[in-house]
Amino acid sequence: MKILVDSDSCPVKDLVHDISIKENIDIFFITSISHYTINSDIDSSKFIYVDNLKESADIEIINRLDVNDIVVTDDYGLASLVLSKKCYAISTKGYIYSEENISGLLTSRYLASIQRKRKNKVKSTNKKRQDYDDKKFIKEFIKLIYLIRRKIDFSGE
């Protein structure tokens, strides 16, 4: 198991990094070159930079996935692809994507895009990040790690 972070605008990089160290899990931050940064708290070898082209980070993440890996992303399309590879995806607010909920999320995204193209107002569901968002993310992320480890222990995958 490893963790891949869709990290261009990821607000939980430090949280994911700290948990990965504590849980002894390899982690990689996939980001476009336009988001190059030096973060003294995170080992720079953990960053993989990709072209600035649309979907470059998503393609890099998908190409690096192995069964039971975890991807941190807010992108429903990427989450859908991750699930199809028998991996796991979690949002930066701690929402665990699954086969049961991804179809509805993709449909909502599609319908919102139609409304935007028609120049209709679409109510944003994005609210300013709060402390409880970080707490929920930590709780759900750790729970996901332990569920995967338990699955691996029982199934041998």
Strand content: 15-25%
Range of helix content: 40-55%
Shape: globular
Secondary structure class reads alpha/beta
The tally of helices reads 5
The low-confidence parts are none
Query: N-to-C terminal Cα separation, in Å?
Result: 10 Å
User: What integer value in Å does the Rg equal?
Assistant: 16 Å
Task: Report the mean per-residue pLDDT as an integer.
Answer: 86
Largest sheet: 6 strands, mixed
Helix-strand topology string = EHEEHEHEEHH
Q: What is the spatial order of strands in the main beta sheet?
A: 3-2-1-4-5-6
Count of extended strands: 6
Keywords summarizing the entry:
157 residues
Structure report:
With 157 residues, the chain is α/β, with parallel strands linked by helices. The chain is 44% helix and 15% strand. The protein contains 5 helices and 6 strands; from the N terminus they run E-H-E-E-H-E-H-E-E-H-H. Helix 3 (76-84) packs antiparallel against helix 4. The chain is globular.
Topology diagram in text:
Layout: E1 2-6, H1 13-22, E2 26-32, E3 47-50, H2 56-64, E4 70-72, H3 76-84, E5 88-90, E6 96-97, H4 102-117, H5 131-155
Parallel strand pairs: 1-2, 1-4, 2-3, 4-5
Antiparallel strand pairs: 5-6
Helix pairs in contact: 3-4
